[in-house]
Amino acid sequence: MNWLDEVKWDANGLVPVIAQEQGSNDVLMFAWMNREALEKTAELGRAVYFSRSRNKLWFKGEESGHVQTVHEIRLDCDSDVVLLKVTQLGHEPGIACHTGRHSCFFNKYDNGGWKAVEPVLKDPESIYK
Fold first, then answer.
1. Binding-site residues for Zn(2+)
2. Which residues contribute to the annotated binding site for Mg(2+)?
3. Does a structural domain hold residue 83?
4. Using CA atoms, how far apart are residues 54 and 44, in angstroms rounded to an integer?
5. Is 83:74 a contact under the CB 8 Å cutoff?
6. Domain containing 115 — which CATH number?
7. Binding site: which residues?
8. If you average pLDDT over residues 31-40, what whole number do you get?
9. Ramachandran region of residue 8, left (φ > 0), alpha (ψ -120 to 50) or beta?
């Protein structure tokens, strides 16, 4: 059996993916992969996702330069969520979020509302052209 056949793909042929920073264990982002993206990620050792809005493969960092080197690919106990252990490249500290922040999980629930608790490390206008 092919290792990709063991993944439980959803009705659209996708699986949710969490990117976690190796070392700090920060959760950087959540995205989706189709079979081709997961296969390319394993083959290249860099994160390749599937963009649902653009309906195509998305090589993380193709526009921003914020590439993710993949050290481990893990599958959860139900075989329906992938975890990538990555090093975030392209800026120090690493920027994974399109808002110019280290992590996409920068909003924290506080006293009845959401509050941004992580700084913008680089203006997104200067990242994406």
1. 77, 97, 104
2. 76, 78, 80
3. yes
4. 22
5. yes
6. 3.10.20.810
7. 76-78, 80, 97, 104
8. 98
9. beta
